[in-house]
Amino acid sequence: MGKLKSFVVVVDDDESVCRAIKRLLRSVGIAAETFTSGDAFLDVLSSMPSYRPDCVILDVQMPGLDGLEVQRRLSGSGTPVIFVTAHDDISARERAFAGGAVAFILKPFNDDLFIRTVRAALEGEEPS
């Protein structure tokens, strides 16, 4: 029996970013599902107990629940969180890492670095 395919969730209010990240992840054999709001993602998470991504990629700034609040609500789930953002806000970066984020990547990002970071998170390693 082969290893199950890794499953990643991307939460970003910009649909084009969601599509690009999903396409990038799929190109390296990682399944991805996208949500354009933190609320929509958390609704699915709470309504389907078996819905458990191996990693969550969050935008920091989104209407409604921002990425930091989504991360706070995931606290204790053991799910690795990677932030991607166009805004390098030191306070947001500090809050993300204090909340257990494994990485904080600025948009636009290098695809190879991004894939290495996601793979490290999926394998429970520190990103290099």
What do you see in this structure?
The protein has helices at residues 15-27, 38-47, 67-74, 90-98, 111-122; strands at 7-11, 31-35, 55-59, 81-85, 103-106. With 128 residues, it is of the alpha/beta class. The protein has a single domain (7-122), classed as Rossmann fold (3-Layer(aba) Sandwich), CATH 3.40.50.2300. A five-stranded parallel sheet has the order 2-1-3-4-5, with helices on both faces.
- What's the architecture, going by CATH? 3-Layer(aba) Sandwich
Distance between the termini: 30 Å
Sheet-strand content, in percent, reads 15-25%
The CATH class name reads: Alpha Beta
Largest sheet: 5 strands, parallel
Tally of DSSP β-strands: 5
**Can you list the strand order of the major beta sheet?**
2-1-3-4-5
* SSE succession: EHEHEHEHEH
Could you tell me the CATH topology label: Rossmann fold
Q: State the domain count.
A: 1
Mean pLDDT: 93
Shape: globular
Helical residue percent? 40-55%
- How many DSSP H or I helices? 5
Name of the CATH homologous superfamily: Response regulator
Oligomeric composition of the shown chains: single chain
Rg (CA only): 13 Å
Contiguous uncertain segments of 5+ residues: none
The helix/strand class is: alpha/beta
Outline of this structure?
The chain is α/β, with parallel strands linked by helices and 128 residues long. It has helices spanning 15-27, 38-47, 67-74, 90-98, 111-122; strands at residues 7-11, 31-35, 55-59, 81-85, 103-106. Strand 3, helix 3 (67-74) and strand 4 (81-85) form a beta-alpha-beta unit.
